[in-house]
Amino acid sequence: MTWLPEASAHAMRIDLLLAGLVVISLAVLGLVFGLMLLNILRFRAGRTTAIARAIAAHKSWRFEIVWTAVTLAIFFALFLWATQLYVVGFRPPAGAIQVYVTGKQWMWKVQYPGGQREINALHVPAGRPVQLLLTSEDVIHDFSIPVLRIKHDVLPGRYQSLWFTADRTGSFRFYCTQFCGLAHSRMTGTLTILSAADYAGWLNSTPASGSLAATGEALFIRSGCSGCHASSRYAPDAADTSRAPSMVGLYGSRVVLADGRAVVADAAFLHDSIVDAPRRPGASFATEMPSFRGVLSEDELAALVAYLQTLSPTLPPSAGN
Ligand code: HEC
Ligand SMILES: [Cu+2]
User: Fold this and answer.
1) Cβ–Cβ contacts within 10 Å for residue 181, how many?
2) Residue 289 alpha carbon to ligand 1 centre in Å
3) Per the omega criterion (within 30 degrees of 0), is the bond before 156 cis?
4) Torsion angle, alpha carbons of 210, 269, 274, 106, to 10
5) Is 78 helix (H, G, I), strand (E, B) or coil?
6) More confident residue, 317 or 71
7) I want to staple 103 with a disulfide (CB 3.0 to 4.6 A). Which of 124, 135, 141, 308 is the partner?
8) Domain Cytochrome c spans what residues (predicted)?
9) What is the pTM of this model?
10) Which tens digit of pLDDT belongs to each residue from 211-228?
């Protein structure tokens, strides 16, 4: 659709769903108002009531059941169609490029795995899946890229994930779509979709102070994590889990939480565990994990999460999300 630009196959699917909803709603509207009009004309004052009685005698249960069931089936099919699109939006394919996006009154800070940083700008390659890990440093924001038909609330203290594969190059706007204070309306930025070659060139020409994972490794030592957690497959600390669980192989593994739920340790799990360590049932460690809420900034947390992912090298980044 040219009057509503789209930049991904997902956007086209969302538009198709919208068109389907509109068409079916219009059909229902037409049917209801058409029948109303018909009956207004048929039973208008002055016509003999004999016809009315003849028609009323025709009321049948079969007819009632059929039209109720058919309507229900149509709207249930719409529900399944929409649910499927919604669920897909939260399952990034393995190997997606992970980009960390932090909302803050009133700007968007963006960090790339290579260590590049930007403000109110997002560069991505066309044809490759990109996962956004969204969080806020203050109030609730909402990250929306209309041209890709994706948006999600951005909450302080936890990660939300969105993903997309853009399929055309160009520059488009993204927005904060949750009123978040005085300068909310200026909390926008530019999404630039580049060809694979241009993206590689852009990464090279944008200064970065070491990859995100390398920054995270330094932080892991500086913040004291390494005092409790093993983070190397090699001696000396490889198998030492007396003080705390090992970070090796944690990312992408299945973990059981205190409430009995089993979850896959994805980027959001790592982030949320550092902010507030989950109590594992039956865990007995010599130490207790302190909360790092407010101690580490979201930029630092992103670096730590990127680093912890490299400790599961058999998995491509973001697998298992
Ligand atoms: C004083 C020791 C200590 C320090 C320092 C510490 N942790 Fe922990 N951490 C623990 C313990 C103990 C657990 C297990 C909690 C439980 O299951 O009850 C844990 C749990 C975790 C988990 C969840 C893993 C799981 O298997 O449940 C992550 C992720 C984590 N820590 C990362 C970090 C990072 C990153 C840092 C540094 C910023 C850090 N920890 C600092 C002791 C510590
Ligand atoms: Cu905002």
Assistant:
1) 12
2) 5
3) no
4) 70
5) helix
6) 71
7) 141
8) 211-312
9) 0.78
10) 888 888 888 888 888 878
pLDDT of 2 over the 60 cut: no
Nearest-atom index, ligand 1, CA of 296: 38
CA of 236 to the centre of ligand 2 (A): 46
Architecture label for domain 212-309: Orthogonal Bundle (1.10)
Beta-carbon-side half-sphere exposure of residue 19 (alpha carbons within 13 Å): 8
Which of 151, 154, 152 lies closest to 141, judged by CA? Answer: 154
The mean pLDDT of the chain is: 85
Q: Residue 206 has which token pair?
A: 């944008």
- Binding site membership of 82 for ligand 1 (Cβ less than 6 Å): no
Tell me the CATH number for domain 97-205: 2.60.40.420
Is 303 close to ligand 1, i.e. is its CB under 6 Å away? no
Q: State yes or no: pLDDT of 317 exceeds 60.
A: no
Instruction: Determine how many CB atoms are found less than 10 A away from the CB of residue 85.
Output: 15
Ligand 1 neighbour 280 (Cβ under 6 A): yes
CATH topology of domain 9-88: Helix Hairpins (1.10.287)
Three-state SS for 239?
coil
Does residue 275 line the site of ligand 1, with CB under 6 A?
no
